[in-house]
Design a protein that fits this description.
This protein has 768 residues and is of the alpha/beta class. It folds into two domains: 324 residues, TIM Barrel (Alpha-Beta Barrel); 331 residues, TIM Barrel (Alpha-Beta Barrel). Helices cover 43% and strands 12% of the residues. The chain has 28 helices and 23 strands. The strands form seven sheets. It has an eight-stranded parallel beta sheet. Helix 8 packs parallel to helix 9 and helix 27 packs across helix 28. It is globular, with a radius of gyration of 27 Å. Bound molecules: glutamine and zinc ion. The site of glutamine has 13 residues, from loops.
Amino acid sequence: MLTQNLGYPRIGGQRQLKKACEQYWAGKIGFAALSHIAEKIKVENWQTQLDAGIDLIPCNDFSLYDQTLDTSLLLGAIPQRYQAVLSQSGDNREVDLYFAMARGYQKNGLDITAMEMTKWLDTNYHYIVPEFKADQQFRISNENIFNEYTKAIQVVGQKAKPVLIGPVSYLLLGKEKEEGFERIDLIKNLVPVYVEIIDRLGKLGAEWVQLDEPTLALDLSKKEKEAFEFAYRSIAEQVSGVKLLVATYFEALLDNTRLAVGLPVHALHVDLVRAPEQLDEVLALVPDQLMLSVGVVDGRNVWKNDYEKSLGLINRAVKKLGADRLIIAPSCSLLHSPIDLDLETELDPEIKNWMAFARQKLAEVSDLRQIAEGNNTLLEANKKAIASRRSSEKVHKQVVKDRVAAISEAGATRMSAFPVRQQIQRERFNLPSFPTTTIGSFPQTDDIRQLRAKFKKGDLTVEQYEQSIEQATIDAIRWQEEIGIDVLVHGEFERNDMVEYFGEQLEGFLFTKNGWVQSYGSRCVKPPVIYGDVSRPEDMTVRWSTFAAAQTDKPMKGMLTGPVTILQWSFVRDDQPREVTTNQIALAIHDEVLALEKAGIGIIQIDEAAIREGLPLRKSKRPYYLDWAVRAFRITASGVEDRTQIHTHMCYSEFNDIIEHIAAMDADVITIETSRSQMELLQAFAHFEYPNEIGPGVYDIHSPRVPTTDEMTSLLAKAAGLLPAQNLWVNPDCGLKTRKWPETKAALENMVAAARQAREQIETASII
Ligand code: GLN
Ligand code: ZN
């Protein structure tokens, strides 16, 4: 029985890579210094995996920015617009090119945009999307993978296993940049380059090569399936002496099982954490010779492996295949988990004993092999930890469980239907047509950030801190009144992050000191950990909302984060279904909504920024998810009076496939991001005849650019052409936290002017 790892975090235990990259970009260190740090991390990572007793140790899983971008450079898929970078003089042109593709290039009179970035399947890791043209050619364009393999053998010898994104997934995860072709057809051009790469790796001594094909676990067209067959048949025919391992993850193979096990490769990796149910079918269909890598240790979460459960899976596979055809592995690359639990010195030891980060997960893989081979002592300690988690009062709160179990249909429904509520709310708030508002946060200046940091460190008293936050809030309110915003916000100056702020006040959450995970490039996030039943010991936002409301006669919006977003941006429990955890959070937010209502806050926004990104990868699994996700939102708003107006906000607007579910959330007002698509994306709402009120963003907050009044007026006219004008709100695309005050002020003044123009046009009936 072998063990393997599919990939290891590359940011370094102290986020050394992040710091080094940022220093390099700022011109504070040279490329030699950056490389030096990168090499050190690689060697440490290899050594760690070697020490843990892993047999197949990945190399080429390292990246200075992103492994998909590295693959594009390896394959020579470099968009034309970057050629200008290469024709500059200087020693670092290759490096400049690399970071230009990642981050854009504004130097020496050139101004080149970065390549697009998007989420790596259903993770929070963002990759650089490959760009393809109809006549796209590929050729080996750099030597990194070969150099890295050569280095890896110096540290781990024969155990080094080069990792590459497989050819089909590389194409499918990219994008056509011109009309008239399908990127999957490029497989014919691409495969010969893979053949050459794998062949060269074999000649350098590689025994195994891992090809990541996560798309093999997605819904595939006939043509895409054929591309898999073609690609792997061609590679198998032309390369000899190298064992190929195809890695799938994040979903079950389902209807692609036959295809996957039929590929002419040496081993197939399957994710048995996400989809343990696929094991039986895989085992039933697996042909003689094919080795199976079973991903039994969760590469995407922070919990200690339940050895008994994993052994159940391993033993079933051993029974069918024999031990020598089995490889034990994490479910996917460990890129998605924090690095080292040993660095967490302040965690509650009881809870810490239930957790495992990347380094600990390697030990688990190794343990599992030893146990499967008969070493039972390792099993006992694990059983104890798992049992303690299962019964701990820190995790299990019967009142919370009972409350979730008792949620009824009425507990997920507003009192009256929307038309009734709308009438009552119109009378109550008496807002003009095209009411103006913002999404919640105002610029987080350095002063505000420092204030919060100092307070956290204990350098400020509560009074000092609160007084400064009060002042910032008052200033923001005065200013909103001055420019004539209709529904005000308090500005969220007291919040560092929209999930962390709530997590810190809820029971069942913990925060790590070093649990960083790469999000994109040098950006890392430290998600909260939900370890136990969630409850809300006290009011969370009432203090700041009521303070703000008392400063003005205008309506003040209360601001909350929704349950799915809190879930989605945290490490969640793996000992109960996600929907149960979500319902617990929903009840906590529900209680907060009622507390705000009782305190006199008439308009409450519950942000669900992440509903869409929780969508399962497989279409067949989406309806179930959408049902519980929408229901969780409805729980938060149930029991609220008809006269209270519930808003929600989403940072995107691709709603075509989920519009009926968005409508089922039944928010009185939804604000979305539409400016960059010039209201194009509002079509889904128009088609559906979306009945409730809606604020399509009229300006892009991702750029410092100040939009003109006319621009925004014409966007509003466009929106009024698609939806009833009396249902439209006027607001930016998203929160203004990342912007500076001068551009924010200018843009919002123009926005208010645009709303006024739209009102006049309505009166003169020039827009309807
Ligand atoms: N209310 C939040 C803010 O304005 C919403 C942020 C978001 O949608 N990502 O910052
Ligand atoms: Zn947003």
